[in-house]
Amino acid sequence: MNALGTHRPPRHLRAFLVLATVASVALPLASCEAAGRATVQPHAPTAEERTHYPWLPATARVRALEETFAPPEGYARVPVEAGSFGAWLRGLPLRPEGTPVRDYQGGTVLAASDARLAAVAELDVGGVNLQQCADSILRLHAEWRWASGHPERIAYHFTSGHLAAWPRYSAGERARVSGAKVTWVPGSAAADASRAAFRNYLDLLFTYAGTLSLQAEGARVTGEPRPGDFFVLGGSPGHTVLVLDVATNAKGERVALMGQGFTPAQDFHVLSGKDGPWFPLGGDSVTTPFWVSFPRASLRRLPSP
Predict the structure, then answer these.
(1) Residues 6+ apart with CB under 8 A from 67
(2) What whole-number distance in Å separates Cα of residue 170 and Cα of residue 163?
(3) Taking the CA atoms of the chain, what radius of gyration do you get in angstroms?
(4) What is the dihedral of CA 265, 267, 273, 276, to 10 degrees?
(5) Taking the complete model, does pTM exceed 0.90, yes or no?
(6) What is the pLDDT of residue 39?
(7) What is the DSSP secondary structure assignment for residue 121, as one 8-state letter?
(8) Where in the chain are the domains?
(9) What dihedral angle (degrees, nearest 10) is formed by the CA atoms of 210, 211, 217, 222?
(10) CB of 269 closer than 8 Å to CB of 114
């Protein structure tokens, strides 16, 4: 943990410190129908999709999360507010079936055939070891605010508690870090509100944010989970998974699609458990393949819009 309390070691040591993927016994792959997956032909992003998900390259071949994962038999997706983070996540573009998870250097982290992998999001990870688990959730939430026309609301905290606001960064202010102190210095750079500058802002955020700051950023959820919530166990290391979608049946039982980034920085991906990609939410905790169980009390929600 560095002077700001971030979960990352200094940049020059990151290449040598890689959190090992938790080993698990391989699970048999379920059929597409049993796993709640539909066969969807990928397509070039439409103009509307590139507006909602502006990082998409024109050459990508994508399929929407909602089209790819049908709820289990007897379940229906819970209602979400139009324009909400949860509604936006339902359209999250995924890469074609059979895509592995790759890290920031292009190496394969999870084979496409891994039973713990349901799908890979079409989301760039960058060329450095920054966009890990908490960062992936911050990235998606910030992208939703950008696409929703609320760039002025893009602001998140470093682990030290200092606020990193996109409007300040785009105006040319830069963070000067000295020990545990952060000072924003006006006029450090030319004003720039471009997508390239936004991506640089995100890398700054990822450097000094982590599971501890994300845990503090979100409000504790006492009601039922909804799309866009996340389970988080802050620490060094810690971990977090994003609730991508929720479905319920006539008995009120709920299941959720879960997604994660991980260490080293790697593609954000949809998880699969022993019964497929929909994880039951009825107990006191949720168990995902790569970490200890997340207690219900670890559920958080970021503010809207």
Answers:
(1) 38, 40
(2) 14
(3) 19
(4) 180
(5) no
(6) 81
(7) B
(8) 30-301
(9) 170
(10) no
